[in-house]
Task: structure prediction
Amino acid sequence: MKETTCSTAQTLANEQREFLTQMLQTSLPGARVEFHADAINVQHAGQQDDAAIVGMVKRLVYIARSLNKDLLFHNAATPQFERDPQPYLESTREVIQVHPGFFTLQGGFLEVFKAINGRVRAMADEVDAIEQEYPAVWPVRLFKQIDYFHEFPHQVILCAPVKDDFDTRKRFADTYGKDAEFETVAMDQMMAPAEYGLEPAVCDCCYYGLENTSELQNAYYTCYNKVFRNERSGFGGLDRLTCFSVRDIMFVGDEQFVLEARQVLIERLSTFLTSLQLDAKIETANDPFFSNDAVMKSVFQNAHRLKYELLARIPHLDRDIAVGSINFHRDFFGKAFNIETLTGATAFSGCIGVGMERLTYALYCQHGERLSQWPQPVLDYLGLGRRVDQGR
Ligand code: ATP
Ligand code: MG
Result:
């Protein structure tokens, strides 16, 4: 046996030690790992040289940074504004309600929304993410493969066409003419069975598109899309919409790559929240992303946090709302869609998602209903220049 000592510059917690041991023993079969205050001693068969092993340990220590923590980041700022900005934004028609749960956006609010999307897109570019564009609907088969109807029936919105025959079309046209009395349309015998539904999340189309791939290269992907869930705010607010907008960055490949990518993005998102001067934190979510028993079991075994949330303070509601999330799916999608990495192992995946309306709303809630009230460095970071109050 050969012996390599690697300095860690810190004492590792038990969860981090278990993770390092497990990963090192996978890469170096038969290895023995011993932990000291600020070093790790690896006894191995000598298949790899000292430099390679020191490099591997360094990478694993980086990946393990978040493993023993529930609170990953906290930017404790004191918001200057305490009112709900929505009445003002509706009075200037920057936000126009189309129907409870969905809105038209324009003017300053839309500028901020697009600037945030641009910032998250830039984050994706920094890691060379492959850009993708998805339809706003999922085929029923996609819902089925990930057991979505069973796990999240409360969020499902299905789409069905009018049946494909002349009599039904005529009956439909007669029943729902302009002068008829109706506010909703019954999904009855005139409608065909739903073959697809409105997409309730962005990232799943990425894994679906990789179905039956073997020798998958580690990669990041990104997509911005509309998302639909059967829910809405209790008070017509922008905090919970039926149709909202999300940019996701997905990372798919071997376990080590996926965990490393997650850590890279946790750090970039922390910088992002700091630059926005938001009173915000990143912490473990209490709702696990996937709740089927096998996955939950392995979560407890591995002590990996599956989901973190980016939480921003909403002063007038005196609570936090999730403006984004960081998810680790383990091999859930790799198994559901039969995706294999270069080594033939089932692919792991993870994603981050930022909700544009939520984050834009949180910024207005904390910095003020008029852009001229916002801290100049925040406007500069978003590329929005100097704003002068137009006295409305
Ligand atoms: P919540 O716990 O608030 O329902 P979630 O855990 O369901 O959020 P995710 O599935 O992680 O949210 O979705 C990613 C992001 O999409 C959230 O962090 C949030 O910014 C945004 N989002 C989720 N649901 C809504 C909604 N109904 N309206 C507006 N934005 C939303
Ligand atoms: Mg939700």
In short: The chain has 13 helices and 16 strands. The longest helix spans residues 255-275. The chain has a mean pLDDT of 93.
